[in-house]
Design brief:
three-stranded mixed beta sheet, 4 helices, Tetrahydropterin Synthase, Chain A, elongated, about 130 residues, alpha+beta
Length: about 130
Protein backbone atom coordinates (compact mmCIF):
# COMPACT_ATOMS: atom_id res chain seq x y z
CA UNK A 1 0.00 0.00 0.00
CA UNK A 2 1.54 3.28 -1.07
CA UNK A 3 0.05 6.44 0.34
CA UNK A 4 1.25 9.43 -1.61
CA UNK A 5 0.29 12.00 0.95
CA UNK A 6 -0.68 11.51 4.57
CA UNK A 7 -1.52 14.44 6.75
CA UNK A 8 -0.07 14.16 10.21
CA UNK A 9 -1.65 17.43 11.15
CA UNK A 10 -4.87 17.97 13.10
CA UNK A 11 -7.12 20.95 12.48
CA UNK A 12 -8.06 20.86 16.17
CA UNK A 13 -4.49 21.55 17.33
CA UNK A 14 -2.29 24.62 17.08
CA UNK A 15 0.88 24.49 14.95
CA UNK A 16 2.95 24.06 18.13
CA UNK A 17 0.71 21.25 19.40
CA UNK A 18 0.82 19.51 16.00
CA UNK A 19 4.62 19.63 16.02
CA UNK A 20 4.71 18.20 19.54
CA UNK A 21 2.24 15.37 18.73
CA UNK A 22 3.41 14.41 15.23
CA UNK A 23 7.09 15.42 15.35
CA UNK A 24 8.99 15.26 12.06
CA UNK A 25 5.93 13.77 10.33
CA UNK A 26 3.95 16.96 10.96
CA UNK A 27 3.29 18.80 7.75
CA UNK A 28 0.03 20.61 6.94
CA UNK A 29 0.67 19.77 3.27
CA UNK A 30 1.22 16.08 3.97
CA UNK A 31 3.97 13.55 3.31
CA UNK A 32 4.16 10.08 1.72
CA UNK A 33 4.45 6.53 3.03
CA UNK A 34 4.71 2.97 1.79
CA UNK A 35 2.72 0.84 4.22
CA UNK A 36 2.80 -2.90 4.65
CA UNK A 37 -0.58 -4.37 5.63
CA UNK A 38 -1.03 -7.84 7.10
CA UNK A 39 -4.53 -9.26 7.52
CA UNK A 40 -5.14 -12.29 9.74
CA UNK A 41 -8.34 -14.33 9.56
CA UNK A 42 -9.55 -17.11 11.82
CA UNK A 43 -12.17 -19.82 11.74
CA UNK A 44 -12.82 -23.47 11.23
CA UNK A 45 -10.56 -25.29 8.80
CA UNK A 46 -12.56 -26.63 5.88
CA UNK A 47 -12.00 -30.41 5.81
CA UNK A 48 -12.03 -30.49 1.98
CA UNK A 49 -9.78 -27.51 1.16
CA UNK A 50 -7.74 -27.56 4.36
CA UNK A 51 -8.06 -23.77 4.56
CA UNK A 52 -9.87 -21.33 6.83
CA UNK A 53 -10.48 -19.18 3.75
CA UNK A 54 -9.53 -19.42 0.12
CA UNK A 55 -6.58 -17.05 -0.30
CA UNK A 56 -7.84 -15.95 -3.71
CA UNK A 57 -11.03 -14.73 -2.03
CA UNK A 58 -9.07 -12.97 0.71
CA UNK A 59 -6.90 -11.22 -1.90
CA UNK A 60 -10.04 -10.00 -3.69
CA UNK A 61 -11.48 -8.67 -0.41
CA UNK A 62 -8.19 -6.92 0.34
CA UNK A 63 -8.11 -5.43 -3.16
CA UNK A 64 -11.60 -4.00 -2.67
CA UNK A 65 -11.20 -2.87 0.94
CA UNK A 66 -7.59 -1.65 0.91
CA UNK A 67 -5.99 -1.20 -2.47
CA UNK A 68 -8.85 0.37 -4.42
CA UNK A 69 -9.70 3.07 -1.89
CA UNK A 70 -6.19 3.78 -0.54
CA UNK A 71 -3.33 2.78 -2.86
CA UNK A 72 -1.49 5.70 -4.50
CA UNK A 73 -4.01 8.16 -3.06
CA UNK A 74 -3.75 11.37 -1.16
CA UNK A 75 -5.65 10.04 1.83
CA UNK A 76 -6.79 13.44 3.04
CA UNK A 77 -8.05 14.63 -0.33
CA UNK A 78 -9.05 11.43 -2.16
CA UNK A 79 -10.58 9.32 0.64
CA UNK A 80 -13.74 10.83 2.17
CA UNK A 81 -13.19 9.03 5.50
CA UNK A 82 -10.01 11.03 6.09
CA UNK A 83 -11.54 14.42 5.39
CA UNK A 84 -12.62 14.48 9.05
CA UNK A 85 -10.27 11.84 10.56
CA UNK A 86 -6.51 12.43 10.90
CA UNK A 87 -4.70 9.93 8.64
CA UNK A 88 -2.48 8.40 11.31
CA UNK A 89 -1.42 4.77 11.02
CA UNK A 90 -3.87 3.97 13.83
CA UNK A 91 -6.78 5.46 11.91
CA UNK A 92 -5.68 3.75 8.69
CA UNK A 93 -5.81 0.42 10.55
CA UNK A 94 -9.34 1.21 11.78
CA UNK A 95 -10.42 2.16 8.24
CA UNK A 96 -9.04 -1.12 6.86
CA UNK A 97 -10.67 -3.15 9.65
CA UNK A 98 -14.06 -1.51 9.10
CA UNK A 99 -13.81 -1.96 5.31
CA UNK A 100 -12.86 -5.64 5.58
CA UNK A 101 -15.54 -6.33 8.20
CA UNK A 102 -18.17 -5.39 5.60
CA UNK A 103 -16.83 -7.98 3.14
CA UNK A 104 -15.62 -10.97 5.18
CA UNK A 105 -17.94 -13.52 6.81
CA UNK A 106 -18.84 -12.40 10.34
CA UNK A 107 -16.23 -13.24 12.98
CA UNK A 108 -13.57 -14.25 10.46
CA UNK A 109 -11.41 -11.11 10.64
CA UNK A 110 -8.96 -11.48 13.53
CA UNK A 111 -6.43 -8.69 13.17
CA UNK A 112 -5.08 -5.97 10.90
CA UNK A 113 -1.45 -4.90 11.12
CA UNK A 114 -0.26 -1.73 9.44
CA UNK A 115 3.51 -1.27 9.27
CA UNK A 116 4.49 2.35 8.70
CA UNK A 117 8.16 1.50 9.25
CA UNK A 118 9.98 -1.52 10.68
CA UNK A 119 9.71 0.07 14.13
CA UNK A 120 6.23 1.61 13.86
CA UNK A 121 3.51 -1.02 13.67
CA UNK A 122 -0.16 -0.71 14.56
CA UNK A 123 -2.10 -3.86 15.43
CA UNK A 124 -5.88 -3.51 15.45
CA UNK A 125 -8.36 -6.17 16.54
CA UNK A 126 -11.62 -4.26 16.47
CA UNK A 127 -12.13 -2.76 19.90
CA UNK A 128 -8.78 -4.08 21.11
CA UNK A 129 -5.74 -2.31 19.69
CA UNK A 130 -2.11 -1.73 20.47
CA UNK A 131 0.87 0.04 18.99
CA UNK A 132 4.24 -1.76 18.84
Amino acid sequence: LTCQVCLSHSKSLSDEENLKVFGKCNNPNGHGHNYKVIVTVRGEIDPVSGMVMNLTDLKEYMQEAIMEPLDHKNLDKDVPYFSEVVSTTENIAVFIWDSLQKLLPQGMLYKVEVHETEQNVVVYKGEESMVK
